[in-house]
Fold these 2 entries.
Entry 1:
Amino acid sequence: FGRTGLFYYENGHRTGGGNSTQVSSRLRFIVNATTITDSGVKFGARFRWQWDQGDAAMSSGSPPSIYAAFDHVTVYVGNVPTAFDSANLLKASQMGIYDRSEGGDPLGDFFSFENKSYRGRVNRVGLAVEYEAGSLVARASFVNPDQTGNNEDGIGFEEELGASLDYAWDNGLSLSTAAVFNGSGYKDNDQYFVGAQFAVNDNARVGMNFINNGSITESDDLGQTLVLYGNLAWKSVSFDAYVANNDGDWSGKTTDQAYGIGVNYDLGGARLAASLQRDYSELLSIDTGVRFSF
Amino acid sequence: FGRTGLFYYENGHRTGGGNSTQVSSRLRFIVNATTITDSGVKFGARFRWQWDQGDAAMSSGSPPSIYAAFDHVTVYVGNVPTAFDSANLLKASQMGIYDRSEGGDPLGDFFSFENKSYRGRVNRVGLAVEYEAGSLVARASFVNPDQTGNNEDGIGFEEELGASLDYAWDNGLSLSTAAVFNGSGYKDNDQYFVGAQFAVNDNARVGMNFINNGSITESDDLGQTLVLYGNLAWKSVSFDAYVANNDGDWSGKTTDQAYGIGVNYDLGGARLAASLQRDYSELLSIDTGVRFSF
Amino acid sequence: FGRTGLFYYENGHRTGGGNSTQVSSRLRFIVNATTITDSGVKFGARFRWQWDQGDAAMSSGSPPSIYAAFDHVTVYVGNVPTAFDSANLLKASQMGIYDRSEGGDPLGDFFSFENKSYRGRVNRVGLAVEYEAGSLVARASFVNPDQTGNNEDGIGFEEELGASLDYAWDNGLSLSTAAVFNGSGYKDNDQYFVGAQFAVNDNARVGMNFINNGSITESDDLGQTLVLYGNLAWKSVSFDAYVANNDGDWSGKTTDQAYGIGVNYDLGGARLAASLQRDYSELLSIDTGVRFSF
């Protein structure tokens, strides 16, 4: 997909004190190559090409995830979609053209599918299993930051373990829950998530997420985030809103409350979107732009 | 497209005193992904993969240009095709397998679509507009070498502004004109171009280009270039020729005259070509090779 | 294609003393773009995108090979498939999921198609010719490690010359022979190969390879390798085995004998494979995994 827009962040937050308003674009291609054996097992590989504003050139292609799917089960090896990051409702409060929720997004560190490169951790390897049956999805994942075993005692080289479970009822209620241990390879950086969403009707949804964000260093306590969100659609227009509360005590934080409102206009194949958000540092940010899929 | 051939340049000009004759190839893929909304707006993204002789590997992909096209107008954001560089006749005196005109090509610096990478200027962003109606094409472009605003006073960080206009009459006459200000981000590096071409009949064309090349440093005056060129086709064979005059005074220049002759043989899907040129340093260069499109 | 599996190598041979067992995957895409002229000449370009375990990201794309094919002859320029490396039976004793033969693979250095990058030797250029007529294939190749001529006296900058010839008879016998001079650009690093294979019936083949491995340095004598191998198929399962003898005297070598046994299970579109091998350092290695093509 491609997206481009204007991104304003108070106090030149994103440019180290330079301009507050910038053009910010992203272009992403997902390559998915598959083959099916005579016995019905599907083997495939998936990786991404991506360019973000500020990159000198397109990325050369993320490390791939190689997978085998049979019946309800898919097994991934390599650069895997981790269980915690894949929980259905974890990012449900995101809005605007850059799909962000300054208040509601998880604040902790955990492994996810790497968009571009493993960077320093070239010997990282992951294993993930996904089970899908109707409206139930269960996932478990394991990521070893260094399979050579030469850094067993290094900081940030613990094995990460994660699991998540999603379920949706016919009456419009969805539940999503996840946990990750040693997040991003940091010992005892454990995080938990529970989220619920209810579709009032075809055009209105409300939800609530609770996230325990874990912590990497002793000085920063990322605390617990509670976010309430909702969205409302009317013809081609839809509105998003959230209010979030975080009780943590970390550097840069000046308030416990964050909120955001957003609007989308569906062009049929593309989407105009805008949002206004205030983060936990009491800084305002505004984005607006267009996003489309190929 | 792909091309390969032999490139001779007197005095080892291209190898720092080494061999004068080299194999020189290029491989370029243009990726263009688009989607069309219900209302008829076309959104797309375009970038290039390229390999040139002397590169250790294919480039990872140029930064992209994201665009929206509706009716006669196309708007580009990102790595944009700049107005000056896109002027229809600016490079009409090029010949041979490497599409070069030692005498007639513009000598000044200006931004164009980056083939591989922004290199140091990762915060570059451009905006371009193109209007097309029949045989009229008008373009305007703006390139900011650093949108963070952290280098406002640096040399080479001015905003570049450019415009160009092409028109073709039914009687065979084409006009093309362009201007660029603060070319390539250098203050007062302003360049101008006027070109005319006349198609005598289906097989013969003559043209004239006038280019004011601007200048980056005070010591080098790139002067003004006047080039006369023509080409003549006969069955599968066509001939090119140009004579050029540059009145500038820059390091390496030893004469005001440059010229070139070239020949092409159309294979139907591929093209054999060769050219012999003498540049402003009185050095001869000869190229020959094959070029094809996918 | 893609492949992934477990790779055990005794004594942490591959991790510098770390873990002996690792996940090891590879993903490779071969890009082949072609066009055919009206006169029937096929022009094309070929390169690879590849990721190997331990790489931070996909490679940006190997340098390409540009080729023209007409009738029985194909001419390559650039990153060419070299004649020695392409000899049909040279690697016939390979087995397992990683297609390796610790004992039977050639030990010497020679140029081959670069999977990812020319690395330091950016001015390398190759030329190769292939002639094919029925079951006869003849190849010749030339690789100049630095066409600028600025390193004529450097070590490892000699021109490599190679040739190979394959022939197969109707009765099941195949012969393959090859030679390379100044292998990998090292003066007098000459290598020779003769191989024969006989298909006893549709399910059983035996073969023998003789390789003179040349040498780069005076202290290491890579000697001559003789390898006997065979494979046997039974329904979806096939078995491989080899015994090899090398009479060289090089650092790390502790025995003249190496052997390996392997097994494959065909899934129809994918392949499970495993092998157990002992190398010339008396180290055991075991691999097992799955491989599939797109």
Note: The mean pLDDT of chain B is 90.
Entry 2:
Amino acid sequence: MRTVVWRSLSQSQQESILERPAIADGANITAAVSSVIEQVRQGGDSAVLALTEKFDRVRPDSIRVSSDEIDAASGRLSAKMKQALEQAYANISTFHKAQKPQPLKVETQPGVVCEQVTRPINKVGLYIPGGSAPLPSTVLMLGVPAQIAGCRKVVLCSPPPIADEILYVAKLCKIDEVYNIGGGQAVAAMAYGTESVAKVDKIFGPGNAYVTEAKRQVSNDFRGAAIDMPAGPSEVLVIADDSADPEFIAADLLSQAEHGPDSQVVLVTPSAVLADQVTEAVRNQLKDLSRAEIAEKALGSSLVIIADSLTQCVSISNYYGPEHLIVQTKNPRELLSLLDNAGSIFLGDWSPESVGDYASGTNHVLPTYGYTKTHSSLGLADFSKRMTVQELSKQGLELLAPTVVTMAEAEGLDAHKRAVTIRVEKLMQEQK
Amino acid sequence: MRTVVWRSLSQSQQESILERPAIADGANITAAVSSVIEQVRQGGDSAVLALTEKFDRVRPDSIRVSSDEIDAASGRLSAKMKQALEQAYANISTFHKAQKPQPLKVETQPGVVCEQVTRPINKVGLYIPGGSAPLPSTVLMLGVPAQIAGCRKVVLCSPPPIADEILYVAKLCKIDEVYNIGGGQAVAAMAYGTESVAKVDKIFGPGNAYVTEAKRQVSNDFRGAAIDMPAGPSEVLVIADDSADPEFIAADLLSQAEHGPDSQVVLVTPSAVLADQVTEAVRNQLKDLSRAEIAEKALGSSLVIIADSLTQCVSISNYYGPEHLIVQTKNPRELLSLLDNAGSIFLGDWSPESVGDYASGTNHVLPTYGYTKTHSSLGLADFSKRMTVQELSKQGLELLAPTVVTMAEAEGLDAHKRAVTIRVEKLMQEQK
């Protein structure tokens, strides 16, 4: 971990030190992914199976996971595991249910009623990455809001073999269409449909560079599918003062660093003493991690910034816009109203990032790579869409007519004007 | 207008008849736009001025419109025009203020408090097209929510010369940075910044194919800017039964058709008699429109569908997913809960689309081209972002710890687990 004193840097040094690393080489991935998408669009299920054999080195008996197989997963899991998943499910459900929008109806002027109504997105696809360890938590983060929003069809794709934990959570979330498909081929199958896989309207979920690129490509095609948000490497920024426990902070920094070698890890503190203590604690705690090698790589590009004050720490954080923001200061809540550009914020000594990753109730699908400046933490809103409604009474239209007519004239749109005047004339006839 | 009986079509005919026309030739536009973006990134203001001279055939004295010029616009407008714009401003403000989210705070389990907080997007850019007529209504639709959301910097670009109506609305919305820039060069200037134009986080607003492509390109670059939504030709679908006035419907269809030759216009009705009456009325009303030629082109690809029932009309509309949906039936509100996939809905005989285009209070920036299935009508939410917060008490963490530890073990993430156990161990020591 590299330690810098903020004040000693020029503005351009400050900006460059917080710049995200460019995401590696696009051209090869772009071409490989468009080929995969084209193969799936042309060949459907048989292309999906061939690609699965090529990339995942397995040929599943069937693309779809049967409901018997989903049911069987439960029997193989420990009671402790099921209880943990159910507790997480309950908390995430509680927080996402609270996000249900209130109906909105306003009379903007007499006789002019405007409303906002919400509808679930009909068909959604959830992508759950495979790899060395299963990610049942991601199924919760996507499956729970889809269920609460009321999406009519929820499809889940994950590279085979799919872990029991994932199947168990799918069942908790009442997802009955689970497919043995990973990578770009899963994204293509959900975006365009195959004989087995239903075409969906929107695709959610994290993945490697190929999955990310496939999501980008299908979202640029209006016949494809919308996507949740742009992706990037995971990040944490910790703001701490000398009231914080350096061992806690070290554990938090490492729990980000172990995600992957490209994880971004930043500590910002007004205390040079704490900075040293944390660096020391990180070194010690690193030793006995099973993923120490990964974490060490991530730490190579990580940063400890010594600032002048907590206020400056907040400015630095707002400028960087971290995915995860942990605040371990004496009065963390005092800073909340000043904090901006973060995906999820963890207040105080007893709120490590891993509680939000799994089970506090908040969503762990968050904007990263600076997208916190414009994008939201994933929530119920992402599984729904807002439509507006207006209903005018006769009197409402009469009263609003002069405004609409004047503006339509200014914009040179005759027919817009006439849609109003033709009605007003009829009203005047009625009133005679 | 082509009339078809829905029942007489095969399913594939039904699907193909409602298919949107492909948006013309991308390759040339893509290359031209990336060259414009590159020129602006390299050359800044001087490139912007050169491109403006090339495309808009004017060289403004200054890129920025001075506050004196903005003030002067007011003096040149009629009292009637100002009153209309102020009335529209008031209604749009009322409806968008009502969209302010309630603070959300939930204790998901004892000692685990989760919150959702909202922050404005800091810097937004509004693009207002030029062309034959000024579009002050679009300034209202973008400027009002930006103002209510509390965006700290609002930049407006429009091709010179900028109409007085646009400058007047900019002043109403307290937009003080107005620039004489149009087309792809405006999008590039706002996405990347120049000496004069501040870089923004998100760009809003409609435009021609070049503006649309520029928005797409900058939104695909993480150093660029986010955008409001994908664009496409404007559309209206009218559901009507034989209680409707054919002259009203004809006026509504024409007010969509006059937007542009690629406008999509659809009437769906269970009444063959009404279908004929509307077709006749459209023919008659078309004659004396100043934009008759444009409307006639749009009508060439427009459609009258005779359905079996109102229920089937609703299904057809939901399948098509129109930008604007007008319902002129005996009991329009009865249908509302069945309606899905629309941008904005106009209920009843006295709610023509043009009231929503200008002044009812709803936003006229709407998803089109089928994007209603996944995207929302523009609203306050698009000028803000949601962050989540969690704060656990000591007891909250102790209670949640087993769940987090079990899940971290399942996912093979040691450091995630330790961020919890290291805290729980400290708590146990404290309690000794």
Note: Chain A has three domains: 2-20+232-361, 27-94+121-229, 393-431.
